[in-house]
Design brief:
By secondary structure, the protein is an alpha+beta fold. It has one domain: 2-Layer Sandwich (Ribosomal Protein S5, domain 2), CATH 3.30.230. It is built from four helices and five strands. It has a five-stranded mixed β-sheet. Helix 2 runs parallel beside helix 3. The protein is elongated and about 70 Å long. The termini are far apart. This is Small ribosomal subunit protein uS9. Keywords: Ribonucleoprotein, Ribosomal protein. InterPro entries: Ribosomal_Su5_D2-typ_SF, Ribosomal_uS9, Ribosomal_uS9_bac/plastid, Ribosomal_uS9_CS, Ribsml_uS5_D2-typ_fold_subgr. Belongs to the universal ribosomal protein uS9 family.
Length: 128
């Protein structure tokens, strides 16, 4: 199997991944998954598509991950892994789509408006 690459985005985070056959090692920015994401919840989020297909020990994944916070980065990585798995085996797409792993979450931060302290917050009104 040749190396398969994919891209995942969430908020300001971008994950570029390279998947090859291996033993299930996930390397993020030249660091191990457990070292990059110490939280077990975020590790679980990253591995969700692999666990759904039972492919956790089949592939080695190298990741270039940047931007955003740790939650956005983990969800961007989940999307990239799901897209790469579909490139490898297109029959898996329906199973991953049913779990919601193939959908890019379009929500992002709303911009600040002029004359206001935040995007929607207004300055306190004073009658007198």
């Amino acid at each position: 199997m040749e190396v398969v690459n994919a891209l995942g985005r969430r908020k300001r985070a971008i994950a570029r991944i390279f998947v090859s056959e291996g033993t299930g090692k996930i390397t993020i920015n030249k660091r191990d998954l457990a070292q990059y994401f110490p939280s077990t919840i975020l590790q679980y989020v990253v591995k969700q598509p692999l666990n759904k297909l039972g492919a956790a020990e089949k592939y080695d994944i190298k990741v270039n991950l940047g931007g955003g916070g740790f939650t956005g980065q983990s969800q961007a990585l989940r999307l990239a892994i799901a897209r790469a798995l579909v490139k490898i085996n297109p029959e898996d797409k329906s199973a991953l789509r049913a779990e919601g792993f193939m959908t890019r979450d379009p929500r992002s931060v709303e911009r600040k408006k002029p004359g206001r302290p935040k995007a929607r917050r207004r300055f306190q009104f004073s009658k007198r």
